[in-house]
Amino acid sequence: METTTQTMNSNFDANSEVNPQVAESANLSGDAISPNENAAAPPRENDSDYQQLLAQKEQQIESLKTQVEERTSQYLRIVADFDNFRKRSQKEKEELDLQVKGNTITELLPIVDNFERARSQLKPQTDAEMSIHKSYQSVYKQLVDSLKRLGVAPMRPEGKEFDPSLHEAVMRSPSEEPEGTVLEELVRGYFLGDRILRHAMVKVASPMEQATALEENTVPSQEES
Q1: For a pLDDT cut of 70, what percent of the chain falls above it?
Q2: What is the dihedral of CA 114, 116, 117, 122, to 10 degrees?
Q3: Which residue segments constitute the domains of the chain, with CATH numbers given?
Q4: Residues 190/95, Cβ–Cβ less than 8 Å
Q5: Please, what is the Cα angle at 223 between 222 and 225, to 5 degrees?
């Protein structure tokens, strides 16, 4: 038994030794391949193909940058145009609302004028007349309060200088007041916010010298007749 074990060990040691002829034959049949030899060699900066590829990539990058800038500019213009459109639409809506409101209120102003004429001209004498007077005056007050809530305000130009953009002169009267002073408001004017709803019809002061000259010219003509 021991003799068999020793024989096997001696055979293993003989086989484990590398035969120089086999090794040399292996080197002659083919060289060993290194793992890095199959990898592509990195491009060199002085390589013409590499320089051409790099130029193409840089051109693509510049083209993409230009496209981004153009899209950004278009986006900003669209945003600005939309904002202007929104503001313009809102302003047009407000103008239209104000115009409709002004036209409606203008139709109601003659009613207010009639109430004011009635209040200044009618003098109730009896209790029944006073009761009627108070009734329509309460209606007048409700109407005026409603107009105030809508933004309507009277001009009240008495004592102020005549302004052709606000007033309409229908009469001139000699007065000691400075020329062009509004002496009386014949038909009341109104504002709607900061806009003119109706011009005021007024009587304007004229110089006293004009009245004196007119009287002097009238006296000789009467004596001649």
Answers
A1: 72
A2: 120
A3: 60-150 (3.90.20), 152-212 (2.30.22.10)
A4: no
A5: 65
